[in-house]
C-alpha cells in the first residue's frame, strides 16, 4: 500500500469521523477532534521553531562561521554556542570536522537580536509563578509594537480611505447611460444614508427618540441587511467546504483507493450501532 | 397544509443534514452544467490583470490552507494560468505556513506541467515566514530583510527574477489568495495603500463582507469572492483564450447552486412554520 493510498484512507476516516458528529457525539468524533488539536499544535510549534526561531534568531546570533576565523568577543560568544551544541546537536550544529560552527544559512551576525531572545525567554517565565511578572515586559513590547504597527494602517486604510469612499460626488457622468447614471446616483445615496444612519445607531449619548430615533432605526435596517449578507456568504463558504470534503470522499471511494470511503463508512455505522446497543455505554455514545 | 408546515418546524435536524448532504453529493456525481455569468467584481480582477504592463512582475501571496482549499485553490490555479499565459514573472510568498504546500501544489501543476517554466527566471517561491503583517511591512523596506533565501535555499541575490526587485514597491501587481488573517486586509493596510501598488485578491466567501468596502472605495481592484467567483474567473480565462478547460470551481457550482436553493427553501418553510405556530399560540 503506497503512502498516497494510506493518506487517502486516513483522510477519509478522519473526514467521516468529524461528519459523524452530525448524528451525535461519539468516540470517532472525539478521537478525530483530539488528533486535530494535537497535530495542529505540534505542526504550528515545529514550523514556528524551525522557520523563525532557528534561522531568524539563532541564525542571526550565531551565523555559520569558520572556527579559525573567530576573534575578539566572538571567541567567547561561540564558546557559549559550543555549550548549546552539547544540549542539542540538531538545533546548534557544528560541522563534522569542527571547522564550521554556527547556524547554516545566509544570515549576518546581528547581536541586537539578544533583546528579542531575552524577551522570548521572559515569556516562558509565566510557567514559574515567582518570576512570572517578567513575562509582562514581553507582553508590553508585543502590545506596543502591534498598536504602533496597526495604528497607521487602520487610520490610513480603514478610516481615511473609507471616508473618501463614502463621500462620493452626486454627478451626471456623460460616459454612462441615463439609467446607468440614475443607478450610480442611487448607489451613492444608499452609501451615504447607510453609513450616516449606521453611525447614528452607535451614538449612545442621546436617547434614540424622535428624528434621531427614526434615523437610528434606518441604521438598524442597514445593519440587518449587512448581517444578512454576512450570513449568506457564511453559508456559501460552508457549502463550498462541504463540497470539497465530498469531492475527496468521492475520490477515495474509487477502486484506486480500495473503496476506502465505503469500507470505512460501513465499519463506522456498524460500530456506532453496536455501541448504541450496549446499555452501559449508551450514555457516552 | 398547516399541519405539514407545523411538522416541518419540528423536523429532526439530522434529517436536514441528510437532505443537505444529498443535494451536495448528487450534483457532484451527476453534474448538469448550470451556466455561470461573471459579475463586475470578478471582471474587475480580470481587467486589472490584463492591465499589468508587459513583463510586469507580479507578487502572489498564499494565505490559505487545506481547510479553505475548495474555495481558494481553484482561484490560485486560474490566476496563475492567466498570469503565466500572459508571460508575467511571478514571485510567490506565503503568510500562512500551510500556504506553502498549497503553493507547491499549484506551482507543480501550472508552472511545471502545463507551462514548463524555468524556476528562478519565470517564477520563484520565497516560501513561508512567520510574522503576519510584520512580513508585509518588512518587504516594504526590502525583500532581503525578511527573505534571505528562497524555498530551494538559493540566496535572493542569485535569483534572476529578483534582480531589480528590492522592495515590494518594485512589484507591478499584488494578488493575495486570502482565507483570513493575515490576508487581504493586511495587504491593503501595509503595502497597497501606503505604496499605491495595484492590488487584488481572491477570498473565502466568509471574508467578502470585510473586504468588499476596500473594493468599493477603490483600494482594491476587484475581488474573486468565494467559489462562485472562482468559477466566473475560470470562465473568463477560457472565454479570452488563456486556458482551454474548466477548473474545479466550475465543476462544483452545480452542487453549490442546488444547495443554496434548498437552504433558501428551508428558511422559507422554517419561518412560515414559526409564523403559523405563533399565530396558533396567540389564538389559544
Structural features:
heterodimer, A: 285 residues, mainly alpha, two-stranded antiparallel sheet, 8 helices, 2 strands, B: 284 residues, alpha/beta, Rossmann fold, six-stranded parallel beta sheet, 10 helices, 6 strands, 52% helix, elongated
SSE diagram, text form:
The complex is a heterodimer of chains A (285) and B (284).
Chain A: H1 3-19, H2 27-61, E1 65-66, H3 73-87, E2 100-101, H4 114-124, H5 135-166, H6 178-201, H7 210-252, H8 260-277
Helix pairs in contact in A: 1-2, 1-7, 1-8, 4-5, 6-7
Chain B: H1 2-9, H2 13-29, H3 40-50, E1 58-63, H4 69-85, E2 90-94, H5 99-114, E3 123-128, H6 133-141, E4 173-178, H7 184-195, E5 199-203, H8 208-216, E6 223-225, H9 226-239, H10 248-283
Parallel strand pairs in B: 1-2, 1-4, 2-3, 4-5, 5-6
Helix pairs in contact in B: 1-10, 2-10, 4-5, 4-9, 6-7, 9-10
Short description:
The complex is a heterodimer of chains A (285) and B (284). Chain A is built from 8 helices and 2 strands, in the order H-H-E-H-E-H-H-H-H-H.
Largest inter-chain contact set: A-B, 45 and 52 residues
Mean pLDDT of chain B: 93
Structural class of chain A: mainly alpha
Gyration radius of chain A, rounded? 30 Å
Q: Outline of chain B, from the CA principal axes?
A: elongated
Helix and strand sequence of chain B: HHHEHEHEHEHEHEHH
Summing up helix and strand content along with how strands pair, one would put the structural category of chain B as: alpha/beta
Give the strand line-up of the largest sheet of chain A: 1-2
Uncertain segments of chain B are: none
Helix content of chain A: 55-70%
* Total count of strands of chain A: 2
How is the biggest beta sheet of chain A arranged? 2 strands, antiparallel
Amino acid at each position: 500500500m503506497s503512502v498516497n493510498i494510506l493518506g487517502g484512507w486516513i483522510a477519509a476516516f478522519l473526514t467521516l469521523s468529524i461528519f459523524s458528529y452530525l448524528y451525535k457525539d461519539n468516540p470517532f468524533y472525539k478521537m478525530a477532534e483530539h488528533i486535530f488539536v494535537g497535530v495542529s499544535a505540534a505542526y504550528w510549534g515545529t514550523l514556528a521553531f524551525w522557520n523563525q526561531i532557528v534561522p531568524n534568531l539563532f541564525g542571526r546570533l550565531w551565523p555559520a562561521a569558520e572556527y579559525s576565523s573567530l576573534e575578539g568577543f566572538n571567541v567567547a560568544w561561540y564558546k557559549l554556542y559550543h555549550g548549546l551544541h552539547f544540549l542539542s546537536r540538531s538545533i546548534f550544529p557544528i560541522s563534522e570536522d569542527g571547522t564550521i560552527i554556527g547556524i547554516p544559512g545566509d544570515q549576518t551576525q546581528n547581536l541586537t537580536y539578544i533583546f528579542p531572545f531575552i524577551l522570548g525567554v521572559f515569556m516562558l517565565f509565566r510557567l514559574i509563578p515567582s518570576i512570572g511578572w517578567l513575562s509582562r515586559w514581553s507582553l508590553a513590547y508585543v502590545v506596543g509594537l502591534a498598536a504602533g504597527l496597526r495604528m497607521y494602517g487602520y487610520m490610513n486604510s480603514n478610516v481615511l480611505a473609507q471616508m473618501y469612499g463614502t463621500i462620493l460626488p452626486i454627478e451626471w457622468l456623460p460616459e454612462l447611460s441615463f439609467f446607468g447614471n440614475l443607478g450610480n446616483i442611487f448607489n451613492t445615496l444608499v452609501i451615504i444614508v447607510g453609513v450616516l444612519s449606521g453611525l447614528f445607531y452607535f451614538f449612545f449619548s442621546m436617547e434614540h427618540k424622535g428624528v434621531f430615533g427614526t434615523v437610528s432605526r434606518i441604521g438598524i435596517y442597514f445593519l440587518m441587511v449587512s448581517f444578512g449578507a454576512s450570513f449568506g456568504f457564511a453559508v456559501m463558504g460552508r457549502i463550498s467546504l462541504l463540497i470539497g470534503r465530498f469531492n475527496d470522499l468521492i475520490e477515495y471511494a474509487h477502486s484506486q483507493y480500495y473503496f476506502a470511503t465505503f469500507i470505512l463508512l460501513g465499519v463506522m455505522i456498524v460500530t456506532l450501532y453496536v455501541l448504541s446497543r450496549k446499555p452501559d455505554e449508551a450514555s457516552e455514545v | 397544509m398547516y399541519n405539514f408546515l407545523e411538522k416541518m418546524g419540528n423536523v429532526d435536524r439530522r434529517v436536514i443534514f441528510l437532505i443537505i448532504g444529498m443535494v451536495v453529493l448528487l450534483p457532484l456525481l451527476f453534474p448538469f452544467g448550470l451556466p455561470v455569468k461573471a459579475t463586475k467584481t470578478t471582471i474587475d480582477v480580470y481587467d486589472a490583470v490584463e492591465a499589468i504592463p508587459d513583463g510586469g512582475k507580479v507578487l502572489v501571496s498564499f494565505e490559505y490552507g487545506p481547510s479553505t482549499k475548495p474555495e481558494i485553490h481553484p482561484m490560485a490555479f486560474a490566476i496563475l494560468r492567466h498570469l503565466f499565459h500572459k508571460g508575467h514573472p511571478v514571485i510567490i510568498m506565503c503568510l500562512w505556513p500551510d500556504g506553502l504546500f498549497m503553493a507547491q501544489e499549484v506551482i507543480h501543476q501550472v508552472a511545471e506541467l502545463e507551462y514548463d517554466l524555468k524556476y528562478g527566471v519565470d517564477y520563484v517561491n520565497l516560501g513561508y515566514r512567520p510574522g503576519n503583517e510584520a512580513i508585509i511591512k518588512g518587504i516594504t523596506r526590502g525583500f532581503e530583510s525578511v527573505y534571505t533565501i528562497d524555498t530551494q535555499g538559493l540566496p535572493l541575490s542569485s535569483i534572476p527574477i529578483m534582480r531589480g526587485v528590492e522592495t515590494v514597491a518594485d512589484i507591478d501587481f499584488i494578488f493575495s489568495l486570502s482565507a483570513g488573517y493575515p490576508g487581504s486586509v493586511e495587504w491593503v493596510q501595509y503595502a497597497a495603500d501606503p505604496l499605491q501598488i495595484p492590488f487584488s485578491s481572491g477570498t473565502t466567501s466568509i471574508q467578502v463582507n470585510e473586504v468588499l468596502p476596500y473594493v468599493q472605495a477603490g483600494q482594491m481592484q476587484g475581488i474573486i469572492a468565494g467559489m462562485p467567483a472562482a468559477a466566473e474567473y475560470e470562465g473568463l480565462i477560457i472565454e479570452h483564450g488563456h486556458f482551454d478547460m474548466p477548473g474545479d470551481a466550475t465543476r462544483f457550482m452545480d452542487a453549490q447552486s442546488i444547495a443554496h436553493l434548498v437552504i433558501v427553501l428551508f428558511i422559507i418553510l422554517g419561518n412560515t412554520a414559526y409564523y403559523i405556530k405563533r399565530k396558533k399560540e396567540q389564538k389559544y
